[in-house]
Structures are given as structure tokens and as C-alpha cells.
Amino acid sequence: MNLSQFPLTKPLANKFRESVSGDKDGKPAWVQSIAEGDDEGYFGPESAVWQVHGCIATIVGGIRALLLQACHPAPLAGVAEHSRYESDPLGRLAGTTRWLTITTFASTDVILREAARVNAMHSHVKGEYTNKSGERLAYQASDPRYLLWVHCAFTDSFLATHLALGYPIDKGADAYVSEWSKSAVALGLKDAPQSVAELNTVMDNFRKNELKADSKTEEVVRFILNPPFGRAGLVFYRMLANTAISTLTPNELQILGLKPRSKKWRIITRFFLQIFIAILGGQSPSQKVAIERCDRIKAKQSHQ
After folding, report:
1. Domain locations along the chain
2. What residues does 126 pair with on adjacent strands?
3. How far apart, in whole angstroms, are the C-alpha atoms of residue 162 and residue 157?
4. Phi–psi pair at 294, nearest 5 degrees
């Protein structure tokens, strides 16, 4: 049964697609760029990255990543001073979705073009922050140390929520971490973790030496957990947020000023996400376009 065709569910699906991509059909103009090119891109249909990022669990991972990034005072200052999260929160979300989706599913040339766009934006994000020792330091979004934190926060979050919700990774978690490390190279990060063990080591180093609460932490966290959605949207969103919070470490919860959430939220969320997949009609438009491109490439190669 395709629930996406039911009159009562279609508005919900349209609103979700518009929130995360900027278009109610889930096909903003940039999606068409995924059809371009003559290679599978960095990953391809058989990759762990496609399996993880093509899963509905990424919407929980995205919430967790935003919360986790707020644990570091430098990127937090960048969000507070340079982001449009207050005036246009959904626009910022759509921008992040664009980079993630293109890097996952597009051809190599399109990925590099998108990375150049992101790098141009990062070149303007700079300022000062107070570190864990109380020192006032300069930061710039393109600094490899901050790129490493943001990359690891995304990787750790998508991996943690995917597994916590019980979704499989056929090639294993190490394959996902190793494959996704390639996404950071074009942004200027050359030493991203290559395995779960390496990822955990880097995360522990950040927790020990750099993560801390800041004067902006409470404000940003409150905004992440209370976006400007309608009443029904907020109920669904808070369920997802509770699941995301249930996967954070005690250290991260303390920094963010959050109380632990029961693991029962994961069971509840998994149930409703399965229904939501039916409402959305299965694969995302971006993944469908990517599959069509890969099929075209294979057909062309078979005739050569």
C-alpha cells in the first residue's frame, strides 16, 4: 500500500520534504545536478554510505549532529555569529541537506563543484571563542581542526543513530567510516578517521580537551529542540529528538544541559519511521536520480 497517495498523508510528506530540502516534492533545482556526469561518484549503490544515508534514520542523525556540534565552542560561535539559524532555520537545514545529498549520490565533478561552494562559504566564517582553559582564541571554519570536529560529529551521529534504530550496514560500520572520510578531502580535511576505533579515539580526545558549555550553548540547544514547526510537526520532531538524545554520552548531555532519554524512544521512533517511509513513498527523489545515472552508465559501458 502506498500511503503517499492518501489525501491526509500527502501534506505531511510535502511539508517534510520542504523542510529538509527546500522543495515540497523533494526536488529542488540542485537535485538535477545528481543526474549529471559519467561516474558513480565517491561511493556508488553498493557502498555503506549509500546504505546509511539512503536510510530514513538520517533525519534522527541530523538532529544529533546539530546537538553534538554545539558541544564545541568554536563551531558554536560560528553558528551563533554567522549562521541564519534564527532568521531562516529551514534554509540552513536545506543547505546542509544539499551538501550531504550531493556528496553522497552525485558524480565526482558535481561533488567537487559543491565542495567549492561550501569552501567559499567557510572562507567568511571566522571570529573568536573561549576554549576549555579560558583562553580567547581565533577560529576559522576552514581550519582543519574544526573541520575534523564537524566531520566526526556528522559521522558519529549518522552511525550511532542508524545502529541504535536497528538498521543494518551490510559492509560493516568500519566501511562506512572509511568510505565517508573521502567526503572531507575536498573540504580541506586530509586525516579523517578510517575506522570506528579511530573515530572513537578522536571523539574521546575532543571530549577530554575541547568540548565545553558556552554562553550560547543553552540558546542554540533550545532552538534546535524547538524549531518553528506546526503542532503536529513538533510532536513528531520531538520524538526524533528524544531518540537522538538517547544516543549521546553522559559528557555530551552535561555540556548541552540535557537529561538522559530512555532507549524506549528508539523502539517508538523505529515504528513511526517505518510508517513515515510508506507516507514518503520509499526512496528519496535524489537517490532515484542517482540510481538512474548509474544505470545509464552501466548500459553505456555494456554497449561499448
Report:
1. 3-298
2. 140
3. 8
4. -65, -40
> All 3 cell numbers of residue 269?
521512533
Q: Which of 212, 208, 213, 225 is nearest to 67 (CA)?
A: 225
For residues 242 and 261, the answer to whether their CB atoms sit within 8 Å is yes
- The closest alpha carbon to 54, from 296, 292, 286, belongs to 286
Q: C-alpha cell of 49?
A: 554510505
* Residues 65, 272: Cα–Cα separation, whole Å: 21
Identify the sign of the CA torsion 5, 11, 16, 17.
positive
Whole-angstrom Cα distance, residue 197 to residue 205? 12
Q: Which sign does the torsion angle of CA 26, 28, 29, 31 carry?
A: negative
Q: Pairing mode, if any, of strands 136-140 and 126-130?
A: antiparallel
Angle at 153 between CA 248 and CA 115, to 5 degrees: 155
Q: What is the pTM of this model?
A: 0.88
- pLDDT tens for 16-74 read 545 554 445 546 788 999 999 999 999 999 999 999 999 999 999 999 999 999 999 99
Answer yes or no: are the C-beta atoms of 226 and 49 closer than 8 Å: no
What letter represents residue 38's amino acid? Answer: D
